[in-house]
Amino acid sequence: MESKQVEIICPCCSGRILVDVLTGKVLRGRPPGVVDEQGKPVVDEADWSQAVGNVKRRLETQGNRMDQALEREKDKESRLDERFRKASEKLDEEKGA
User: For residues 82 and 92, what is the distance between their CA atoms, to the nearest angstrom?
Assistant: First the structure.
């Protein structure tokens, strides 16, 4: 599905928010007076720093998840071998009993 976005301007304060219609989530919000003459948000150094920090945190989280998934995949063979060994032992005990 495509994402459809709607920009809403508050009639009281002239603030602007960008909403994803499909999810109902607010994607971006700007208080009044923080837009240029074309209606686009004015971005300052603090906004860029915050965006860079958000991206770095997201990449670190994804990197950690990838590392964890790789470790689980490396251990998968030994875990399956152990399960097979236990199942074989249980089967041998049942045959012997």
Answer: 15
What average pLDDT does the segment 78-89 reach?
93
Compute φ and ψ for 28, nearest 5 degrees. Answer: -155, 145
Please give the model's pTM, rounded to 2 decimal places.
0.38
Place of tokens 């009281």: 12
Cα separation values, 70 from 63, 80, 83, Å? 10, 16, 20
State the residue range of the domain holding 21.
1-42
* Max Cα distance, the chain (Å): 86
Q: What is the pLDDT of residues 6-54, one digit of tens each?
A: 988 888 887 888 899 888 888 888 777 666 777 677 777 888 888 899 8
* Residue 30 and residue 47 in one domain: no
Joined together, the tokens standing for residue 6 give 């709607």
